[in-house]
Structure formats: C-alpha cells, structure tokens
Write a structure and sequence with these properties.
It is a single chain. It is built from 2 helices and 25 strands. By secondary structure, it is of the alpha+beta class. The strands form 8 sheets. Strands 13, 14, 16, 17 and 18 form a 5-stranded antiparallel sheet that branches. The longest helix is centred in the C-terminal third of the chain and has 37 residues. It is elongated and about 135 Å long. The protein starts with a helix and ends with a helix.
Length: 330
C-alpha cells in the first residue's frame, strides 16, 4: 500500500515538474505571434541562452531539424494552409524536453465591399434597411463593419465566427429617413483588427457611397405671415418638397390664375392671400395678410402729434413757473 502511494506521488510530482519546466521553458520566440497575409512569406526566430543538446521547429510547413545552434529560424515562403497548427519550437537540455507554441493567424482582405438597398426611393417617416455585402474575408471574427452617414460613424457590427477560411458576410443597418436626409450619402467600411502583431493601421476596405432619395410633402415653417402694403408687395410661398411642389393662389382680389411660388406687385389690394403648395404626398397652405399702408402712416402721425403736444405742454409749464418766480421776487 505504501509503495503504491509512493508511486502515485512520484508520478504526480513528475507531472507537476514537467509542467513547471514547460511553463519556464528557456526559449524565446520573436515575434511571439505571426499574423500573415494569405500567400505571403513569414519567419520567426527561436533562441535560447542555455546549454543544450539540440533545438528545432516542429511544423507542417518550414520545419527545422534538430540543431546545436542557439538560434533557429522558421521560414515559410507562402502561407497557404488555413488550418495550420501552431508551429512548436523545442529544446533538449539537462531537463525534460520543453516546447513553446507560435500562434499563427492568416488573414485575407475582402474581394469586394458593396452597399445596397431594396428601396431606391424612400418616404419620409418610414423604416428602411441598408445592406453591406463583404465577399471572401478571413478571419471573420476579427472583422468589424463601420457604417457611415457622410463622415459620421453611425453604427458598428462585429462577428463571432471561428472559421479560419475566407467567408462572405452581410451587415445590415436600419434607418428612419426624414426630409433632411434627402441626398445623404451612406457607406460601409470593413476593418480587420488583428492586434498589435498585425498590420498597422488595420486594413480597411470601403464601399462606394449610396446616395438616398427621400420623398416628403410640402411644409411651411409658419402658417401665417403679415405684410404691410408698400410700393412693392412681395409674397413668397416657396417651400421645400420632393417631388417639387405645385403652387396655387386664392384670394378675392386675384382675377387670374397664378402658378408661381412668388407674387411681387405694387397693386395688390389689402386682404388675405392663401397659397397652397402640393405634391403627390400632400399639401400645405400659408396665408399672407396684407394690411393697408395708410393705417400705419396715420398712426405714426397721431403718435408723433401726441408726443409733440406733451412736449409743448411741458415747455410752457416750465416757462410759466420761471416767470412766476421772477414776479414774486420783484
């Protein structure tokens, strides 16, 4: 029983010792991680500062046989194996053999990045979907899709795929366009974030911009405007709309049909003039109230007369007081 226990203890001790040795393996790999573009060359050095009986690289590509040198180099002329296992640098010395893995990431930028939408013409207030298609990119788990409206970042999408080979991915963006978005440009941009060992800055690919067209009905900023009659009355009913608005005017003072958005005349009579802007999405009206210019002049004269009368009264009162004082002195 005691011998069995001692044997088990020795086995566990050996396992712990080996793991400890592996954890402190006297090997240094530079770079510590390989990030390589597909079909490109790559290399990594493995070195040691201890006396050894031999060291080398175990790998499905670029393996280096046992060497007495203190530095051995793994070289791969073309990295094409998407499923490559991490190469291992190993060393034989006065302790059990230990190894250090070299993680390898093979990447490929997309063949194409494009943006599209089912609806080329959009209606204000509705919801629409934009789609970004990314073709043949790897690895997908390092891919980020950035959505831009103009130069403003509006959304980001990332992926959790663990597939190492190139795949095609799709990212979607929901938008609720209004009249201010008519003519806005959207684009999607892919970014492969491969860490510090990867290329800096991260590789990016951008789609061509998608210019959206938004249809919206006419809408005036104010529904009523007061204008004083003068030598040149100017009634401006121009309003933004898509499709462009058609204008109609109504007033008891108008004797002919007017289709222009502006009326400019010195002969318009005082009264109300209603302009209606219409397109296939709706209509909106604005009322112009033209008041007689004479009333303004009369009120100005009356006010000026009152002010003058008060001023004269004050002056007369002051003169009266001065003369009264002079008479009392005499």
């Amino acid at each position: 029983m005691l011998q069995c226990f001692l044997g088990l203890f020795s086995a566990v001790s050996l396992l712990v010792t080996v793991k400890g040795i592996n954890a402190e393996c006297p090997l240094k790999i530079s770079p510590s991680r390989l990030v390589v573009r597909f079909n490109s060359s790559a290399s990594a050095d493995c070195s040691t500062s201890v006396t050894h009986q031999g060291m080398g690289w175990e790998s499905t590509v670029g393996a280096v046989p046992l060497s007495k040198a203190s530095l051995v180099t793994l070289r791969v002329s073309q990295m094409t194996d998407w499923e490559i296992q991490p190469p291992q640098c190993y060393i034989n010395y006065d302790k059990p053999q230990c190894t250090v893995d070299l993680p390898v990431t093979i990447y490929k930028t997309p063949d194409s990045v494009s943006i599209s939408t089912v609806n080329q013409v959009m209606m204000e207030g509705n919801q629409y979907e934009l789609q970004c298609d990314i073709h043949n990119v790897a690895p997908a788990q390092n891919l980020t899709v950035n959505w831009y409206k103009g130069e403003t970042l509006v959304n980001q999408t990332s992926f959790t795929d663990t597939i190492k080979r190139p795949v095609s991915k799709t990212s979607k963006l929901l938008i609720h366009p209004d009249r201010t978005d008519d003519g806005a440009q959207y684009r999607c941009e892919t970014e492969l974030k491969l860490g510090e060992a990867g290329p800096q800055p991260p590789p990016k690919n951008t789609s061509k911009p998608l210019i959206i067209e938004v249809h919206y009905k006419p809408k005036h900023s104010i529904s009523t405007e007061k204008i004083s009659q003068s030598d040149a009355v100017y009634l401006n009913c121009t309003v933004k709309a898509n499709p462009a608005a058609v204008y109609t005017w109504h007033s008891e003072h108008l004797t002919e049909k007017i289709s222009s958005s502006v009326i400019q005349s010195s002969t318009l009579s005082p009264g109300n003039y209603t302009c209606t802007a219409t397109n296939n999405l709706g209509a909106d009206s604005k009322v112009f109230i033209v008041s007689p210019a004479g009333w303004t002049t009369i009120w100005a004269i009356v006010i000026a007369g009152v002010v003058l009368a008060v001023l004269l009264a004050v002056i007369c009162y002051v003169i009266y007081k001065i003369k009264s004082r002079q008479n009392s002195v005499v």
